[in-house]
Amino acid sequence: MKAQEILSKMTLEEKIYHLVQMTTMTYLKTDGTNIVTGPDSTMKLDKEYIYDVGTLLNLVGAQTMIDAQTNFLNGSKRKVPPVFMQDVIHGHRTLYPINLGVAASFDPKLAHDVAKMAAKEASLDGVGVTFAPMVDLVRDPRWGRVMESSGEDPYLNSQMAKATVEGYQGDMGKYNIAACVKHFAAYGAAEAGRDYNTVDVSERMLREYYLPSYKAAVDAGVKMVMTAFNIVDSVPCSGNKWLVKDVLRGEWGFDGVVISDYSAFEEMIDHGYCEDKKECAYRAMEATSDIEMMSPCYANHLKELVEEGKISVEQIDAAVLRVLKLKEELGVLDNPYRSVNVEEAKRVQVGPEHRAIARYAAEESAVLLKNNFILPLSKDIKSVAVIGPNADTGAIHGDWPCGGKVDETITVLEGVKNIVGDRAVYAKGCNIEYDSTDESMIDEAVEVAREADAVILCLGEHQSYSGEGNCRTNIEIPRVQYKLLDKILEVNKNVVVALFTGRPLAISELDEKAPAILNMWMPGTEAGNATANLIFGNANPSGKITMTFPRSLGQVPIYYNAFNTGRPKLPEYDFNRVRFTSSYLDSPNSPLYPFGYGLSYTEFEYSDLKLSADTLTRGGKIIASAKIKNVGKYKGKEAVQFYIHDLFGSVVRPVKELKGFEKIELDVGEEKTVEFEITEETLKFWTKDMKFEAENGKFDVFIGKSSACKPFATFELVD
Ligand code: GLC
Questions:
Q1: Best substitution site from 86, 183, 261, 291 to test ligand 1's pocket, by max atoms within 8 Å of Cβ?
Q2: Average pLDDT of the residues of the chain
Q3: CA-based nearest residue to 640, from 665, 667, 657
Q4: Which atom of ligand 1 is nearest to the CA of 132?
Q5: Cα–Cα nearest to 631, from 705, 702, 703
Q6: Ligand 1 centroid to 260 CA: how many Å?
């Protein structure tokens, strides 16, 4: 085996440097000097070995990769080619919607197909591995990285994780890349929604809610796992032996590569877990973490740890072999340039075929939050005003743009003009900054609105207000945007708000005032065309939110799959004050929009909800089914959702758990029956004895269009 053969010839120093990841920048110097530049220079590595590092990150461009790889191999004695890794999060060059949007499509095949497209674009630029999918379960919209996640439900997150891994990796052919599931584990549970903050969840909550999506990725054959910045049970994930060696590798059987997050090994000092970089190296290797991304602990201290007998050469060999096997599987050991192709990359990336895929994804991801019957607008409309700070900007493609470009992104104004031509008129109205108070552009916008038959008002966030390190303590829409809305409504009642956001926003006031709200998330390179297609009815919105939209930040964390508590406030009294219940003095408990909520231009009627039996024996199965009929005026899609409620358990159980969903398309008048299978497996959870089992007892079942649906039957699990 090539990997084993290469390992057997490596010196200890070469093995150690093979576990180091640096940026590509160092190898782009074509003057032959190996002076470490840029971010790498902070690592103070031994320059003799910089041509022995095993992997490189942050690279976009086929020629860039060719240059870097050529320089690397020219400088290397051992000539073991590095593999290039990149954050291909929601597209490589052609961007599709942020992942919180793709999840809202409730369509794992869509998640698969967009990942497959991104993999092709990335492979043509020489990328071998993407640091995706991010599958962290999230409950706090203050956290900037909810945009990368699939939301608050472990089942849906798992379905999306599986589909995305399979989309990237396929059969590991020339247009595939290896996936890296992240951030292991529970990074989304950061307290107060503040990035990198403390995570403190019980093992039961970890296993019940946070771990399933990583396990789904592992079961789908993901090639790499990235450990998270945060602590789990007060131990940083980078050096968490229980989490990585015992759970990931021991329980789940993962024998692939584990990589740190950016400088996360060294950050174990800041955590107060390690005294120095040497201890960081020891703890990380003890946990069986393989690659150190952008910090020098392994490079500068593993050798002395071996000499002191604290780390064995066998431990290092095992890590190096995992990296070499990944390279072998990617074909890099035989062809260092892998699938790079400058000409094909130019032809394919951001080409019409991929734009069409991105546009379809944006249409399927959008969520119609409100529609007082003004949507869809007629394509024959005499004039439409396109107004707002997000109306004529490409800065709505989403954070983590990889190689995506703002000036390649179709703006809403462009998209609308592609349908109605010069019947579209524009005004900015106000700025996008969350702290802007400038009202000087409102009057001009009002005049433009006054003359139009309808207004498309593009509000929300700038794309840089979500993503890593972009957390917010205020998730409202800025007052100046409400001022603009108020003034426009005074002169024109036909206002559609197109909302661009990387997170759930607290938009109760918008829900009260706007006749229609179409949440486009951050929709990617084809943003404007998708928005216009939906608004003018070329496409019918079918997305449903996978993360709860709160009425106010004061309700956060708020999520559908919560426990009932000993003093629940009954839903029928939600708008009443019921003291001495788990409730608020100044707000209902219900969210503004619940998990699984989203409207369509048509109407779907649910009927004939039934169970095939009211008793389930272990090893048996029963079927929950419903008829869904399109009783409206448009062809449309509906994500039918199936939930259970375990009424009693050896530990308390959530009031609802999503256990199935199916997205169906119905013509006007068409009816379909949707079925969901219930077996013992469906009912398993982490019991009081921390066993993953189903317990006898009664379960309510639900089939509906959102998590707000009511139970329609009860069954009992018996021996
Ligand atoms: C970042 C992110 C991680 C990303 C890595 C490489 O800090 O946490 O998601 O993959 O560094 O860019």
A1: 261
A2: 97
A3: 665
A4: 10
A5: 705
A6: 9
Per residue in 123-164, pLDDT tens? 999 999 999 999 999 999 999 999 999 999 999 999 999 999
Just list the catalytic residues.
Answer: 261
Q: If you take atom 10 of ligand 1, which residue's CA is the nearest one?
A: 131
Cα 685 to ligand 1 centre (Å): 32
Give the whole-angstrom CA distance, residue 451 versus residue 601: 26
Q: Which amino acid residue places its CA nearest to atom 6 of ligand 1?
A: 262
Give the percent of the chain with pLDDT over 90: 95
Residue found under tokens 């989309």: 167
CA distances from 712 to 516, 527, 610, 628 (A): 31, 39, 7, 15
| Atom number in ligand 1 closest to CA 187 | 8
E strands of 384-491, at which residues? 384-387, 424-427, 454-460
Distance CA 578, CA 473 (A): 29
| Encoded amino acid at 434, one letter | Y
CA gap 246, 468 in Å, rounded: 29
- Residue whose CA is at the smallest distance from ligand 1 atom 1: 262
Contacts of 302 (CB under 8 A, 6+ apart): 16, 19, 281, 285, 311, 316
DSSP state, residue 42: G
DSSP three-state, residue 46: coil
Tell me: the pLDDT tens digits for 173-200? 999 999 999 999 999 999 999 999 999 9
**C-alpha of residue 11 to centroid of ligand 1, in Å:** 30
Closest-CA residue, ligand 1 atom 8, reads 261
For tokens 């000097």, the residue is 33
pLDDT above 60 (res 35) = no
The string of DSSP letters for 524-559 reads -TTHHHHHHHHHTTSS------SS-B-SSGGG-S--
* Nearest one of 390, 484, 498 to 437, comparing CA atoms: 484
Q: Which residues line ligand 1 (CB under 6 A)?
A: 57, 87, 131, 182, 261-262, 468
d(CA 589, CA 240): 37
> What is the best residue among 99, 131, 145, 238 to mutate for testing ligand 1's pocket, by most ligand atoms within 8 Å of CB?
131
Atom of ligand 1 nearest to the CA of 131: 10
pLDDT computed for residue 30 by the predictor: 56
3 state DSSP class of 3: helix
Confidence band of 31 (pLDDT split at 50, 70, 90): low
Q: Residue 570's pLDDT band (boundaries 50, 70, 90)?
A: very high
Q: In angstroms, how far is CA 502 from the centroid of its own chain?
A: 10
Contacts 24+ apart (CB under 8 A), 555-558: 555/584, 555/587, 555/589, 555/591, 556/139, 556/140, 556/141, 556/142, 556/193, 557/139, 557/140, 558/139, 558/591
Distance 256 CA to ligand 1 centre (A): 19
Tell me the domains of the chain and their CATH numbers: 19-24+50-344 (3.20.20.300), 350-535 (3.40.50.1700), 604-718 (2.60.40.10)
Look at phi and psi of residue 427 and say left if phi exceeds 0, alpha if psi is from -120 to 50, else beta. Answer: beta
The helix (H) or strand (E) run that includes residue 51 is none
Which residues, in sequence order, are bridge partners of residue 371?
516
Q: What is the mean pLDDT of the segment spanning 259-265?
A: 98
The three-point CA angle 52-57-58 to 5° equals 140
pLDDT band of residue 44 (cuts 50, 70, 90) is: confident
Structure tokens at 602: 């048509």
Rg for the chain (alpha carbons), in Å?
A: 26
Q: How far is CA 371 from the centre of its chain?
A: 27
